[in-house]
Structures are given as C-alpha cells and as structure tokens.
C-alpha cells in the first residue's frame, strides 16, 4: 500500500496517556471534513487507545502502523 | 451532538474526585480529558480532599507515608539505578522533616521524565474540552473555601446536583 498523504502531521512522540488522544482531538479541530491527520506516537498504549477513540468519535482510523518503537496513525475527519 | 459522533447518543461520564494528593489527582483528570476527547460529556464533582484540586494555585503533594505500595524510584541515573525501588521505612518518613516535599519533587520529576503531563496541564486540557468542574458546597463551607479560591470555570453544587447529573451518565466513578 502506498503511503497515505496527510494534510497535517501531529508529533506525540515521548508523550504518555492520555495526551496522544487529547492532542489528536484538538488537532482535528483545525482540519476540514475529509482531510487526514497523521499522528506519530511512541506510547504502545496508543494502539488500543486510538482504535477505541475512533470507535467512540466516529472518525475513521484509516491506518495504524506498528513500527516497533513508533506508532503511526492516519485519521480521516468524518464530521 | 448525537448525530455528530456516529453513535446512538452522546455518552456521559460522572466522576467524584475525593482525594487531593498528587498521585490521586491523576485518575480523575486523565479519565476526564480522555473521555472529553472522545466527545463524551464529562463532569467531575470535587469533594472533601479533592476540593483543593480546583484551587487557582495548584499545590498537590504526595505522601509515601502510609502508602505502602508506592514505589520510590529515582528519576535520574542509569537504567538499572532508575529501576531500584528504595525501601524507606515509615518511621523514617514520618520523622524526616521535608520528606514529603522531597518525595513530591521526585515524583513530579519522574512523571515528567516519562512523558506524563502535569496535573496543571491536564486540568487545563479538561477546561479546554468543556469538562464540568463542580465544587462541593458543603465541603467548601467546612474547610473554609470560597469560589474565589478556585479557577473561574468552577461551578458550585451539592449532592443532589451531582446525582441528577450522574443519574443520566453512562459511567460513574468514585475516585
């Protein structure tokens, strides 16, 4: 799969729960519906947290990549 | 909101924050900011020792005294050194002047070095995300707090006000 193109990149490396989720929510405010946010974190807990967050908010978690020491999420704003 | 979040309705979280030490200040603010980030409605009712968490000058401290499961770790040095859990007897903690300040400083430093937000930052996030912060009127009267002691976003309420909010909540927790 070709790399997704993000409209905005949010760096959450080094941050622990709940900051990746909180910052993602805030970053999404600046995007238009249909645009994609790329969030990068180093907290392994952000894998289950981001999937739960997407389920609750209804925004689309297009891709979640586990690179071992880094986790990369592509989130499409749906509303 | 309900049509916005793709679910059947907006969920609501009602928390009671009853403890004001640095360690116990984390759970309500973490859960509240996470829930608000998921588009939940959130209200925290601050009562008894949780009330000072609303103070303008936040000064939560931690006490390892009588807190037997609390690990005492150092936020500096090599990896092996940082993993050591320092066994400090209660008798020593109780009698060493300033021990609480040292422990508080160490814990703040440890949290920061691991990437955990401070209580002040988390509280600010909660305010930004429109979390309702309710101060217990009865405890305010008992401990002599006035509304001016607390941050501007604070609302005042009693048990009935909280219960009426919590009665319509999906999750209610006493912390």
Structural commentary:
The complex is a heterodimer of chains A (79) and B (175). Chain A is an alpha+beta fold. Helix content of chain A is 28%, strand content 30%. Chain A has helices spanning 19-28, 46-57; strands at 8-12, 36-41, 60-66, 71-76. Chain A has a single domain (8-76), classed as TusA-like domain (Translation Initiation Factor IF3). In chain A, strands 1-2-4-3 form a four-stranded mixed sheet, covered by helices on one side. In chain A, a hairpin with a 4-residue loop joins strand 3 (60-66) and strand 4 (71-76). Chain A has two helices and four strands; from the N terminus they run βαβαββ. The model of chain A has no long low-confidence stretch (mean pLDDT 94). In chain B, helix 6 links the parallel strand 3 and strand 4. With 175 residues, chain B is an alpha/beta fold. Chain B has a five-stranded parallel sheet. Helix content of chain B is 39%, strand content 14%. Chain B has a domain at 12-60 and 118-174: 3-Layer(aba) Sandwich (Hypothetical Protein Ychn, Chain: A), CATH 3.40.1260.
Terminal Cα separation of chain A, in Å?
26 Å
The coarse overall form of chain A would be: globular
Structural class, from secondary structure content of chain A?
Answer: alpha+beta
Order of helices and strands of chain A: EHEHEE
How many β strands of chain A by DSSP?
Answer: 4
List the helices and strands and how they pair.
The complex is a heterodimer of chains A (79) and B (175).
Chain A: E1 8-12, H1 19-28, E2 36-41, H2 46-57, E3 60-66, E4 71-76
Parallel strand pairs in A: 1-2
Antiparallel strand pairs in A: 2-4, 3-4
Chain B: E1 12-17, H1 22-37, E2 41-46, H2 79-83, H3 90-95, H4 99-114, H5 119-128, E3 132-136, H6 137-143, E4 154-157, H7 159-166, E5 171-174
Parallel strand pairs in B: 1-2, 1-5, 2-3, 3-4
């Amino acid at each position: 799969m070709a790399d997704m193109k993000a409209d905005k990149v949010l760096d959450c490396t080094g941050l622990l729960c709940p900051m990746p989720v909180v910052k993602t929510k805030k970053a999404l405010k600046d995007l238009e519906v249909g645009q994609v946010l790329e969030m990068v974190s180093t907290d392994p807990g952000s894998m289950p947290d981001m999937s739960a967050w997407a389920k609750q908010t209804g925004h689309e978690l297009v891709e979640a990549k586990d690179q071992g020491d880094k986790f990369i999420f592509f989130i499409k704003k749906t509303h | 909101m309900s049509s916005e979040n793709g679910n059947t309705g907006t969920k609501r979280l009602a928390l009671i924050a009853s403890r004001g030490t640095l360690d116990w200040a984390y759970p309500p603010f973490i859960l509240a900011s996470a829930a608000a980030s998921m588009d939940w409605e959130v209200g925290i009712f601050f009562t008894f020792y949780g009330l000072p968490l609303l103070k303008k000058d936040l000064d939560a401290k931690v006490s390892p005294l009588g807190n037997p499961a609390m690990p005492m770790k150092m936020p500096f040095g090599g990896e092996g050194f940082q993993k050591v859990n320092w066994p400090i007897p209660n008798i020593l903690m109780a009698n060493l002047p300033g021990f609480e300040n040292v422990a508080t400083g160490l814990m703040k430093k440890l949290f920061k070095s691991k990437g955990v937000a401070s209580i002040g930052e988390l509280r600010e996030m909660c305010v930004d995300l429109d979390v309702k912060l309710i101060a217990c009127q009865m405890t305010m009267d008992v401990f002599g707090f006035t509304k001016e002691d607390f941050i501007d976003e604070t609302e005042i309420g009693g048990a009935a006000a909280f219960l009426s909010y919590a009665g319509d909540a999906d999750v209610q927790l006493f912390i």
